[in-house]
Amino acid sequence: HVQLVESGGGSVQAGGSLRLSCAASGGTFSRYCMGWFRQAPGKEREGVARISSTGIGAITSYADSVKGRFTISRDNAKNTLYLQMNSLKPEDTAMYYCAAALACPGYGIKGTDFAFWGQGTQVTVS
């Protein structure tokens, strides 16, 4: 099975930027739909972004709360998923997880669609 390891989290001030990475190993990365999720203490897990397995012209989708600020991308040659986060807000504070699915859902970013998960990286915005 595929293993996922997130990195790039940290503490930033509101308005700042971070770039998260998710390194995949042990699977065929290019064939997975990939997603980013986040969860803050006392709140439910939220789907942030997803990207299809298409090598050229990958299809992306974003939660309304991050649309226009976050960008998901992938480098299949490096088996790595990215999340560029700009204009960060305090409400973006959460543990961020990357996940892999055999297929992207037709609508929405649902955790139940993703079978493989990383351990997370903390993002704190103050």
Can you walk me through this structure?
The chain starts with a strand and ends with a strand. The model has no long low-confidence stretch (mean pLDDT 94). It has 126 residues and is mainly β. The strands form 2 sheets. Strands 2, 4, 5, 6, 9, 10 and 11 form a 7-stranded mixed beta sheet that branches. It has a 4-stranded antiparallel beta sheet with strand order 1-3-8-7, with no helix packed on it. β5 and β6 form a beta hairpin. It contains no helices and 11 strands. The radius of gyration is 13 Å and the shape is globular.
Task: Record the SSE blueprint.
Elements: E1 3-7, E2 10-12, E3 18-25, E4 33-39, E5 46-51, E6 60-62, E7 70-75, E8 80-85, E9 94-101, E10 116-117, E11 121-125
What attributes does this structure have?
four-stranded antiparallel sheet, mainly beta, single chain, 126 residues, seven-stranded mixed sheet
The run of helices and strands is EEEEEEEEEEE
Low-confidence stretches: none
Kindly provide the radius of gyration, computed on alpha-carbon positions and rounded to a whole number of angstroms: 13 Å
Query: How many distinct helices?
Result: 0
Number of strands: 11
> What class, by secondary structure content?
mainly beta
Q: How much of the sequence is in beta strands?
A: over 45%
- Sum up the overall morphology in one term: globular
Mean model confidence by pLDDT: 94
Helix content: under 10%
In short:
Helices cover 0% and strands 47% of the residues.
